[in-house]
Design goal:
Elements (H helix, E strand, L loop, with lengths): L2 E3 L8 E3 L25 H12 L3 H20 L13 H6 L8 H9 L3 H31 L11 H17 L13
Antiparallel strand pairs: 1-2
Helix pairs in contact: 4-5
Length: about 190
């Protein structure tokens, strides 16, 4: 970002070049930055260098994390675990309520075994979001590795994200209600 520093107001204010003609003797322009732009540190420079030279590292890291989660889920078989098995949900342990993520591991296990109704019973928002998240991951990884958009990126609007989060919150509240039909969501 090119610009000039206005020492008339404060030497730390960074004023964009198009605002250099603005009279800063009285008040700074509303878009002046109250602190200087810092140089990137060692870690930021290293990560930027790795990202520019080996674009496959970030998608490989994400794939490794997803693979670790899948392996953990398959090896632990969360469908046979009891409420006191470790690891357990701290919110459920302390309050007795299902948290917004309760049942997610079991739903993922059922999804990996092709049992869609059982997965939806344990965590419906996860079942709904999984294909979208998988598509977004594949599209992002392809763009990152090949440095061009091979698969169109899925960019949900803010309203869509807020509606999904609101539905997830409603699901989280409804699953804790003790009467029918909401007790169908108990896990």
């Amino acid at each position: 970002m090119s610009g000039v520093t206005s020492s008339a107001v404060d030497p730390n204010y960074h004023v964009p070049a198009q605002a250099a003609a603005y009279d800063t003797a009285e008040t700074p322009p509303p878009y002046a930055y109250p602190y200087p732009v810092r140089e990137p540190g060692r870690i930021s420079r290293f990560l930027t260098k790795v990202n520019n030279q080996a674009p496959w590292v970030a998608p490989a890291g994400v794939a490794l994390l997803i693979g670790g989660g899948v392996a953990y889920t398959l090896l632990m078989d969360p469908t046979n675990a009891s409420a006191s098995s470790t690891p357990t949900c701290l919110l459920r342990l302390l309050t007795g309520f299902d948290c917004p993520g309760c049942g997610g591991t079991r739903a993922a296990w059922y999804l990996m075994h092709g049992d869609l109704p059982a997965a939806a019973r344990h965590h419906a928002p996860l079942v709904f979001a999984t294909p979208f998240l998988a598509y977004m991951d594949v599209a992002w990884a392809a763009k990152k590795v090949f440095r061009r958009e091979l698969v169109p990126l899925f960019r949900p609007r803010n309203l869509t994200v807020f509606v999904f989060l609101g539905a997830w919150l409603a699901f989280s509240i409804a699953r804790n209600l003790p009467w029918a039909p909401f007790n169908w969501f108990w896990v």
